[in-house]
User: Fold this.
Amino acid sequence: MEFSEILWLFLNPFEAVRGVRDFLELGGNVLVIIMLATLVLWALIYERYSFLRRDFEQLKQRRLAEWQARSEHKSWNARRIREMIISDAKLKTSANLSYIKVLVALAPFLGLLGTVTGMIEVFDVMAVTGSGNARAMAAGISKATLPTMAGMVVALSGLFFTSSLERKAEWSVEQLEDQLELAD
Assistant:
């Protein structure tokens, strides 16, 4: 695709929508399901990044202020409160990560489902026509390969962002843990 074509799609969003619609028609109903799962996946990823960037910093500042307001930091109670703060931070930073992991793991299976339904369509065409007519089978083969490719692309990109989110969440909690000093 040339730059002028990309610019045309950018300036004319109806062409882009038409292209997406054509792509979804080529891949069949399973590709629509993969697209919906992808939208949910990216919404959850965006939510986690925005939480870690903005909301967690506010939470961390509140918790640090509460900790600094304590008169002592060495007692058994103080240590349990510190553990509670760290545990709460771990829970909040890892929220929705399990849903993201499930969607990432589900994407290749949805692609496989698209492969199976596309191949069933190829076999139906072969049964109806009684031959291996390549033109008649082309639509089914397209419906078999596009969902597989889409499922793999979603899974691979989701894996990258899942591991990035896990590292960022772990690092954020470690930073909080380091700032919660035990000494008076």
About this structure: The first helix runs from residue 3 to 11. The chain has a mean pLDDT of 85. The chain has one domain: 3-179. The CA atoms of residues 38 and 154 lie 7 Å apart.
